[in-house]
Design goal:
The structure is a homodimer of 246-residue chains. The first copy, chain A, contains 8 helices and 9 strands. The first copy, chain A, is an alpha+beta fold and 246 residues long. In chain A, the strands form 2 sheets. In chain A, strands 1, 2, 3, 4, 5, 6 and 7 form a 7-stranded mixed sheet that branches. In chain A, strands 8-9 form a two-stranded antiparallel ribbon. In chain A, a hairpin with a 4-residue loop joins strand 1 and strand 2. Chain A binds a DNA duplex (27 and 27 nucleotides) through helix 7.
DNA sequence: CCAAAAGTGTTAGGAGTACACCCATGA
DNA sequence: TCATGGGTGTACTCCTAACACTTTTGG
């Protein structure tokens, strides 16, 4: 193990990527030989943190090292530190030794982050050959390492909670977006359907969602009007004690 | 430092206690001699965690050791791990050495908990002579150690958020309570005033707030009817996809 | 009988919800 | 001209917010 690392504290990343159809999660495939058998499962990107590194910097570093992405929305969830979180499955002990980390008590501090896959390129991210974007609903059928399923559930419910009162949807969209794209995000994340007219009525009342004099092009149907999110207007309203809810 | 402790991970407790008038915080007074001067400030109860101890168990242990209270509501906030959180003030380094903990990188995982001071006895808690219950608004004028002010702000905003959608108010009340007591909690925590009639109308629609055939006694005014919170009814409704909001 | 807090209804405005058809574009 | 998704209004219900007086008890 590298000497500059804290042996008992790690960071894991639940990276949500929206590709205008699905909400995806970035997972790293992992293969373990254990007692003659080959096991395959998936984990979040993550690493021990450095002794001279803030938690928030560690999470940014790990995402940058894996994907090259910088300046995206990222927020800490909470610490997960069960005694047996790394050692429930015997084969994981072998894996820890194989990556030169024979420490069995690691408290992990997961972050979730939001990426627009159109803008950031769904394929550009594949710097690590074992990394994959997987639709959230599909993840639930996969074998996740350690307590990563529990972390995912926590991340999802936190995301849903924060989406209700904060302008996070725009982190998942390109700068210019259509109202249908915006609506789709809420539908996918809350696993529901929304009424188009009611949704648009609500949006029309939000001064910080600004209509542009631009349209989609190259679509084989009536092109949608494009909008943008004005963080300036939003901040001004918010400081006047305003309550954002979509 | 005790050998059974993780050197880089601690737990801190933001204990909220409601005494039917104020929302209080449990603080530990701390005196430091540094370069000939005596400094006094306040910190949350907290300690390093044990190597063989879950995070949630550590927080319960620390509260129990200090106050004797068990089985109260307790929830993790998030990790605080700035590089300089312990070393911003030079005198704190001396203090760390004085308590036999010369490690300057400690990530702390704060919990908040809710205590009813009527039931648990505002004075019984004073097992530690340096411990005090301090009204939240007064805390803001006091000198808090390390990043404990930041942790307090985070705890308060988390508490407010959770109060909106979870039945936490009842953790701060005796088992039998009046509607005025209940209303007072929301008023104190949200620093607002509520209309008595509208508040009661809302409560009347909540089947899990059950009127009892009992009244206050020994009050020098019309005695209030007493109510209780039925967790059973609440759980049943919640599992049917119900949305608690006060 | 006084002080103190308990208890109680109505109304008006705003927000949410349900619902169906025409429009603009590319192929 | 067809397929595809874009764009629009109305009516009903329910929730919220504003507001003031009478009741019950102990002292």
């Amino acid at each position: 193990m590298h000497a500059g690392l804290l042996p008992n504290v790690s960071v894991d990343l639940v990276v949500f990527g929206f590709d205008s159809v699905h909400l995806n999660i970035l997972l790293i495939g992992r293969s373990i030989f254990y007692k003659g058998d080959l096991y395959h499962d998936w984990k979040f990107p993550g690493d021990l943190i450095r002794k001279d590194e803030d938690l928030d910097d560690a999470s940014k570093r790990i995402l940058r090292e894996l994907t090259g992405i910088e300046k995206i929305y990222m927020k800490q969830l909470k610490a997960f530190g069960s005694l047996n979180r790394l050692t429930k499955r015997a084969r994981d002990m072998d894996w820890l030794i194989s990556i030169d980390h024979p420490e069995n008590r690691v408290i992990t501090i997961p972050y979730y982050s939001l990426v627009n896959l159109e803008k950031n390129g769904k394929n550009d991210l594949m710097l690590n050959e074992n990394a994959r974007w997987v639709p959230v609903n599909y993840v639930k059928t996969m074998e996740l390492a350690f307590d990563h399923l529990e972390i995912l559930e926590f991340a999802l419910s936190t995301l849903r909670n924060e989406m209700r009162t904060k302008p996070l949807a725009f982190e998942l969209l390109p700068q210019k977006f259509s109202l249908t794209q915006l609506q789709k995000i809420y539908e996918v994340i809350f696993e529901t359907t929304l009424d188009k007219r009611n949704f648009r009525k609500k949006i029309a009342n939000l001064s910080y969602i600004v209509p542009l004099n631009e349209q989609e092009n190259d679509v084989s149907h009536r092109p949608a009007k494009l909008y943008m999110f004005s963080r300036d207007i939003y901040q001004r309203l918010k400081s006047r004690n305003f309550d954002f809810t979509i």
